[in-house]
């Protein structure tokens, strides 16, 4: 233990209390031992430091901070240096605001385009997500602030996110959902990890021996501290045993009492408790020491300029017919679209930043740009209602201009924590405006704001599409820089754009209808499905255009990696994101045709060429062998593909890899040949649906084969339990509960109608009953929650008795504990 001296002096009560937060954002302090409290704060793309009263989802204002492009946007840069630069700026701002732990980046895999938080996550691919996250961590931690990577793990649904169970097979878990975390830990050593709200194969992530103790702390040797997501803890004794340290935000002293009881009864070892306290103390002492004497200022202008540079590096040029972009100086343009007047540049939820300033196209386009602006109008109503006047204004503006710049995309309700989308379309009114303008002027350039993949069947009405994603506060200037040729676009998609939502491999299984979400698509997430089985897409993973062109040549592959030459063959300078994929034709295991295993962004002047080297690493050839319960390399002639997107491979080479001779777990004969008596874990015949690409209709039998057992029953019981979500009250036995549900529904609908998600209503709606005990600062304990659930289930008087009795006993016990903490007997 690193802090044995302190551990020796701390009482059992103090240790237990330390493992729960003190307030919304801070850990407990122990003044008698000079243990300070440390401050945690969101978020991933800008600080959300609440200086006054803290509230979980940010009703109370936070201090002004720079809003950088969100992670989904930054991933399109495929630029690790840029990630580190932004990370440094985030670290500086955190330091200036007295924050010790920055709660980000979020790095969950974008399993499905509808997840409300996709805008906060990097990619559908673990390699890209892992490398980008590592680059942020490096930057943030260079400032003495810890980064907290989140949400560990398999968190891909917002609806009932605290009351759902991800059912996922071990190999998919390792290769798709955990690899990115492993990479970030390996490369940059984040000081902390936040567990996710959901269960993974029946265990809460925050209590999962498998995820935390065996994999994170065991296999990956992680020594930092682990924190629950806010209100996400269930049973802290189990969590502490599993290796999770801190329960946040302020659970009161109920959990501390349980920890003390567990140690006293022997069900939790002192060793486990000490290990957790030690991990926590290490973070508290290291980060508070590093923060001493910090400046309270940060470079507001410098960070704004960085946000603008980043946004420009991240935008993806999806289409540019007749080279309409960049616009020539003096082009007569009309600007149409509400987003040009009030930009959508970040998503809603705990990541929402109170920006230091926000650029607006309407304000920027006149003056500094050499464009002749003929008209500017809003075109559509943001809430999706039809408006004939706005529509006709847009058509007139389109008629008056050579080129229309149309700013549109997803509205606020579509991208929020606590809410998944129900479809992948943009509001119909925006499409109507586009179609109407296209009838009078074919030269329309669409500038899209959306942090996640959308259906784009209307793209034929656009000559060019510049997808800015969610740009952060300086997006307007960045988009204009790209449109007017101050910057050459270089971003590439970090996720696939399917033709329609229903093509998505996880579509039939998403989201969890009741408790379980079956991850039946298994390894075939995103391009791993579309590319492997030759399914058409709107835009493939890794795709993005430039104003110039690049030629690839001279591929050399050896056991160390690949090298090749890229030449800028166009007439302007530009950057190309080169991608390396590996695949093994004829592989004995189930696998994607190719998988991303490296990338490099290279800037080249017009006519210039450069050699690009992409080294292999420990992730290049491995797969998770369930039989060995470990990583293995399959021997064979690997195809090494280098290209401009997953669908645009320019060079191909071969590499013979010896492999480790570990037989594939699918191969009965080979297993028998090495003396294996047990049957192969997988029965090939049952996996036919996977082999044949019928991923959208995986039968139970095939999924069970991957799971290695029966699919668990995830249906809701007839009575509600502590771990059921409040939104299930609609089915409750008690009339009172159903009444409460109706009130909540009403509030939710009011927020929907207003076009802005009400985050606190959403949080309550999706949270389980147990979280009432975790989010009320100790006012409610487990017994009281039990009583509430009894009431809800129609046992009114018994339940009420428990609530009232619990209220008094909890109060008494809390007081006694407080006294002991103060040293009174
Ligand atoms: C989110 C986390 C966030 C935390 C604190 C939770 O609801 O899931 O990502 O860091 O709140 O705001």
Question: How does this model look, in words?
Answer:
This protein is of the alpha/beta class and 825 residues long. A hairpin with a 2-residue loop joins strand 25 (636-645) and strand 26 (648-657). It is globular. The chain starts with a helix and ends with a helix. The mean pLDDT is 95. Bound molecules: beta-D-glucopyranose. Beta-D-glucopyranose binds at residues 42, 56, 103, 150, 229-230, 350.
Please give a quick description of this structure:
The chain has 825 residues and is an alpha/beta fold. Helix content is 32%, strand content 17%. The radius of gyration is 27 Å and the shape is globular.
Average per-residue pLDDT, rounded, comes to 95
Shape: globular
Largest sheet, spatial ordering of strands: 9-14-13-12-10-11
- Helix share bin: 25-40%
Structural class: alpha/beta
Low-confidence stretches: none
Count helical runs. Answer: 24
In percent, how much strand structure appears in the residues? 15-25%
Cα distance spanning the termini = 29 Å
Could you tell me the radius of gyration in angstroms?
27 Å
Bound molecules: beta-D-glucopyranose
Compute the number of strand runs: 26
Largest sheet: 6 strands, mixed
Descriptive labels:
825 residues; alpha/beta; 6-stranded mixed β-sheet; 5-stranded parallel β-sheet; 24 helices; 26 strands; 32% helix; 17% strand; globular; binds beta-D-glucopyranose
Explain the layout of strands and helices.
Blueprint: H1 4-9, H2 12-18, E1 40-41, H3 71-74, H4 80-96, E2 101-102, H5 126-141, E3 146-152, E4 165-167, H6 170-188, E5 192-195, E6 199-200, E7 203-204, H7 209-219, E8 225-227, H8 236-242, H9 254-265, H10 270-290, H11 300-314, E9 316-320, E10 332-336, H12 361-364, E11 372-377, H13 388-400, E12 403-409, H14 428-440, E13 444-449, E14 464-467, H15 475-483, E15 497-498, E16 516-518, H16 527-530, E17 537-539, E18 550-558, E19 561-568, E20 574-583, E21 595-604, E22 609-615, E23 622-625, E24 630-633, E25 636-645, E26 648-657, H17 668-673, H18 688-691, H19 700-707, H20 735-754, H21 759-766, H22 770-774, H23 782-792, H24 796-821
Parallel strand pairs: 1-2, 2-3, 3-5, 4-6, 4-16, 5-8, 10-11, 10-12, 12-13, 13-14
Antiparallel strand pairs: 6-7, 9-14, 15-17, 18-19, 19-22, 20-21, 20-25, 23-24, 25-26
Helix pairs in contact: 2-9, 4-5, 4-11, 5-6, 11-15, 13-14, 23-24
This protein binds beta-D-glucopyranose.
The site of beta-D-glucopyranose has 7 residues, from loops.
């Amino acid at each position: 233990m690193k802090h044995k001296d302190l551990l020796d002096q701390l009482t059992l009560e103090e240790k237990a209390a330390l493992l729960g937060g003190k307030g919304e954002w801070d850990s407990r302090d122990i003044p008698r031992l000079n243990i300070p409290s440390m401050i945690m704060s969101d978020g991933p793309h800008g600080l959300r430091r609440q200086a006054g009263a803290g509230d979980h989802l940010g009703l109370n204002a936070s201090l002004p901070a720079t809003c950088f492009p969100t992670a989904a946007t930054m991933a399109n840069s495929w630029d690790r240096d840029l990630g580190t630069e932004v990370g440094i700026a985030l670290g500086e701002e955190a330091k200036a605001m007295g924050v010790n732990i920055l709660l980000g980046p979020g790095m969950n895999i974008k399993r499905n385009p509808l997840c409300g938080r996709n805008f906060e996550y990097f990619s559908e691919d673990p390699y890209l997500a892992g490398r980008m996250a590592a680059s942020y961590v490096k930057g943030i931690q260079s400032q003495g602030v810890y980064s907290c990577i989140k949400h560990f793990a398999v968190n891909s649904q917002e609806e009932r996110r605290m009351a759902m169970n991800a059912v996922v097979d071990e190999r998919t878990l390792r290769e798709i959902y955990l690899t990115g975390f492993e990479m970030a830990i390996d490369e940059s050593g984040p000081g902390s990890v936040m567990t996710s709200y959901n269960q993974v194969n029946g265990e809460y992530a925050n209590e999962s021996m498998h995820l935390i103790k065996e994999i994170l702390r065991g296999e990956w040797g992680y020594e930092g501290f682990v924190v629950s997501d806010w209100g996400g803890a269930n049973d802290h004794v189990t969590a502490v045993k599993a290796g999770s340290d801190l329960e946040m935000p302020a659970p009161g002293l109920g959990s501390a009492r349980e920890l003390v009881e567990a140690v006293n009864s022997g069900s939790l070892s002192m060793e486990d408790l000490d290990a957790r306290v030690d991990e926590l103390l290490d973070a508290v002492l290291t980060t508070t020491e590093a923060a001493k004497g910090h400046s309270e200022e940060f470079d507001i202008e410098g960070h704004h300029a960085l946000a603008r540079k980043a946004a420009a590096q991240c935008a993806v040029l999806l289409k540019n017919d007749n080279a309409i972009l960049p616009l020539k100086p003096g082009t007569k343009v009309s600007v149409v679209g509400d987003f040009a007047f009030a930009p959508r540049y970040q998503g809603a939820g705990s990541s929402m930043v109170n920006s230091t300033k926000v650029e607006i196209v309407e304000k920027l386009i006149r003056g500094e740009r050499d464009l002749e602006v003929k008209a500017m109008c809003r075109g559509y109503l943001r809430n999706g209602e039809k408006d004939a006047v706005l529509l006709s204004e847009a058509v007139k503006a389109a008629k008056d201009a050579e080129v229309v710049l149309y700013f549109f995309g997803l509205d606020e309700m579509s991208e929020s924590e606590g809410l998944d989308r129900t479809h992948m379309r943009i509001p119909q009114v925006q499409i109507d405006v586009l179609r109407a303008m296209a009838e009078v002027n074919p030269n329309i350039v669409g500038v899209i704001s959306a942090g996640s993949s959308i259906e784009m069947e209307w793209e034929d009405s656009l000559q060019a599409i510049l997808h800015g994603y969610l740009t952060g506060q300086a997006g307007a200037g960045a988009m204009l820089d790209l449109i007017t040729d101050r910057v050459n676009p270089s971003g590439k998609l970090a996720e696939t754009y399917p033709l329609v939502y229903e093509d998505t491999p996880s579509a039939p299984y998403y989201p969890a209808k009741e408790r379980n979400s079956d991850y039946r698509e298994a390894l075939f997430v995103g391009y791993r499905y579309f590319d492997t089985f030759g399914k058409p897409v709107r835009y493939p993973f890794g795709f993005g255009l430039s104003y110039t062109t690049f030629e690839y040549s001279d591929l050399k592959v050896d056991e160390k990696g690949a090298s090749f030459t890229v030449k800028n063959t166009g007439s302007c300078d530009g950057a190309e994101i080169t991608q390396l994929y590996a695949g093994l034709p004829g592989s004995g295991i189930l696998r994607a045709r190719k998988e991303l295993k490296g990338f490099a962004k290279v800037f080249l002047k017009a006519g210039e060429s450069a050699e690009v080297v992409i080294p292999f690493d420990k992730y290049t050839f491995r797969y998770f062998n369930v039989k060995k319960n470990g990583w293995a390399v399959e021997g064979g002639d690997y195809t090494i593909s280098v290209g401009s997107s997953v669908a645009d491979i320019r060079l191909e080479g071969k590499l013979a890899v010896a492999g480790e001779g570990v037989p594939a777990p699918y191969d009965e004969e080979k297993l028998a040949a090495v003396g294996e008596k047990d049957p192969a874990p997988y029965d090939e015949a049952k996996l036919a649906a996977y082999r044949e690409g019928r991923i959208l209709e995986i039968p139970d039998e095939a999924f069970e084969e991957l799971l290695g057992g029966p699919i668990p029953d995830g249906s809701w019981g007839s009575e509600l339990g502590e771990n059921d979500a409040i939104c299930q009250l609609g089915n409750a036995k008690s009339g009172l509960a159903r009444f409460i549900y109706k009130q909540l529904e009403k509030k939710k609908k009011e927020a929907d109608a207003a076009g802005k998600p009400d985050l606190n209503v959403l949080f309550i709606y999706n949270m389980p009953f147990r979280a009432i005990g975790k989010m009320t600062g100790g006012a409610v304990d487990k017994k009281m929650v039990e009583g509430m659930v009894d009431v809800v289930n129609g046992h009114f008087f018994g339940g009420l008795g428990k609530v009232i009795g619990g209220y008094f006993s909890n109060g008494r016990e809390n007081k006694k504990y407080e006294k002991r903490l103060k040293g009174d007997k």
